[in-house]
Amino acid sequence: MVDAEVVTWAYRLFLGREPDPEGAARNLFCFEGFPVEDLVLHFLACNEFRLGSLYRRTINFQQRSPVWVDLDGYSIWAYPDDSEIGAEIVAKGQYEPHVTAALRERLGEGDTFVDVGANIGWFTLLGASIVGPAGRVLAIEPNPSNLVCLSNSVIGNDFTWVDVLPYAVGSEMATLRLLAGRGSNAYFDVEVPCVHDGWRDGSMVPVRTLDDLLVGLDRVDVLKVDVEGAEGRLLDGAAHVLGVLRPSLLCELSPESLVERSNRTGDTFVDQLIEIGYDVCHLTHAGQRLPLADGAAALRAQLAQGGTHIDLSCEPRQGRASTRFA
Known about the structure:
Elements: H1 4-15, H2 21-31, H3 36-45, H4 47-50, H5 53-63, E1 67-70, E2 75-78, H6 86-92, H7 97-106, E3 112-116, H8 122-131, E4 136-140, H9 144-156, E5 162-165, E6 168-169, E7 174-180, E8 186-188, E9 204-208, H10 210-213, E10 222-225, H11 231-236, H12 239-245, E11 248-253, H13 255-262, H14 266-275, E12 278-283, E13 289-291, H15 295-303, E14 310-316
Parallel strand pairs: 3-4, 3-10, 4-5, 6-9, 10-11
Antiparallel strand pairs: 1-2, 7-8, 7-9, 11-14, 12-13, 12-14
Helix pairs in contact: 1-3, 14-15
């Protein structure tokens, strides 16, 4: 039912701003105690929403045609014109084979898998197919466009052991603007102009720490992270998850994005992981795990070979909840 908090979030999600006192009071007076759907329909019909960027993006996505792609025992909704992820899935039935193989090695039936930056759900669905009904998957994704594909794929596969959490992950509780960009990728920041190097203005999204989102869990076997440069912020809010639950970690790292959005260098990030007790390796496209014992030197050496990012495979040196993978 509609209450003051629901009204506040309706302004943030649909209009991309904080509510003005007069408008909030009026909407609360009209809709308090009514079903949330009534308030949603009201905001969808208002002129401010229809003149905004979220409405234009919604129309664009409605005009696109997602494809139901059959995979290995399950399926996924993907957009063929998504150059970042969907196109490869539709054309080849695959995505990042080296990371896919690494996840298969680390997950087993009954495990708990957390996918931060789940996008349209490639790794979420793969994880769900492996852990099965005895396990659990939490998919964390803030981008409204991606959430449509992700949620429909979860429902379409009847993966009832998957929970989809519509949040961005950071170092503290906040509300920030999500900037959706090329394909299905997105990032959040508070200091980026509305149009920046091809990235489009987006909507306001809630930010929570990983520790807050996973409170109550007594195990996480594998954690996958791909958050477009916010990895440093995530690390700052994940002391319990990484220090106590000790999952295996698969993480994409783009040093340039990390500096811009987390205010730290790539080698500092690697050194932080080493300091909290992780063995950090570069996961190559050939599936090799090359140790980064000295974050600064080794990371620079890997990036010098070309490319803007590398994938990390990190294993806790001691105290893992699961010892399947060594």
